[in-house]
Amino acid sequence: MDSYLKNILVISFGFTFLFTAYGGLQNLQSSLHSEEGLGVASLSVIYATLILSSMFLPSVIIKKFGCKWTIVGSMCCYITFSLGNFYASWFTLIPTSVILGLGAAPLWSAKCTYLTVAGNLYAQKVGKIGKHIVTQYFGIFFLIYRSSGVWGNLIASLVFGQTPNKANLTEADLECCGIGSCMVNTTNRTVTSKGPSNTLIYTLMGIYTASEILAVLLVIIFLDQISTNQAESEEKPVSSFRSTFLETFQRLKDKRQCLLIPLTMYSGLEQGFLASDYNKSYVTCALGINFVGYVMICFSATNSLASLLFGKIYQFTGRKLLFTLSRCHSLSQLHNSAIALETSLKPTCPIFYNTCHLGCSRCYLANTNQRSLWNFI
């Protein structure tokens, strides 16, 4: 195995271990910390901070520390969030959410830079076209990284599946789930299912933290630093804070990017609904917190498979038709999810069914077509 491929595999498995923890933890925030909306607030802080950090931090940090140590430091930011969940409060989750948000943008930028530079250097070495090798490296990365959506959620469901005294819900209880959670005080439910014990929560947080520490150690020990001279030969000098800030908004002169912004925002809103309201009001309320992982596994698996399928269909239909169909499909499934909980006392199958359809429709907009459009522009 050549050193370039070895480094790509190290980054891929490092990210897999890291997001096995963070991905599973993100899906549980609204259910584990529902008091006063703490879980949802922490997620909002993460992505608000990420927006700000992505504008200024990546280029400066990568230039100063290099890709390898930027990845290591950013991964440590994720560990702080897991540690904050051991004793969740406004004074622990919000500060650690800020730290995670600050580290997220440099992490992804350093990963992309490393894969791109490594791909181009290997292409020069073997006399191949650089973009072909870079595309191959990104394909390897996402093939391995996407599996984290399965492992993290599976661990959560297996751990919380040990919860005793699972309640049997009646029709009156289900009226407080789904759309009913916005209109009915959940304290009036005739049966209140007990959440996971502190022992199970600590066990899950311990597993997640260990996974993140393993990711950091993997990168520190096995990832080679890209030669500074090689990397700098492909980079421009770091711009000043003012020029970087202005350059970000100068991109808005391109009307194509302006038209993509609403679609990107919609994709983010849909992801936020899935990670917060859907998991809390539909899955946890109707099935229990131990089912959140299983439902998200269905979403992740369908998302990945549909990405491949839609990529093939696009060759025959074009973007416009698939964009329209995916949006109509997604909205119809959100509506069906609400109906399912109003008409069924055993909502397991409808929830799994609709989650698969949500993953199918979202994958094309967010994963396949939307990202290719941003790269093209």
Describe the largest sheet.
none
Structural class, by secondary structure, is mainly alpha
Beta content comes to under 5%
Helix tally equals: 13
Given as residue ranges, the uncertain stretches (5+ residues, pLDDT < 50) are: 186-192, 230-236, 341-347
Tell me the Rg in angstroms: 22 Å
N-C termini distance? 35 Å
Oligomer: single chain
Number of strands: 0
Rounded mean pLDDT score: 76
Described by the principal axes of the CA atoms, the overall outline is: globular
Helix coverage percent: over 70%
Q: Encode the helix/strand succession as letters.
A: HHHHHHHHHHHHH
Subcellular location: Membrane
Family: Belongs to the unc-93 family.
Main location: membrane
Pfam families: UNC-93 (PF05978)
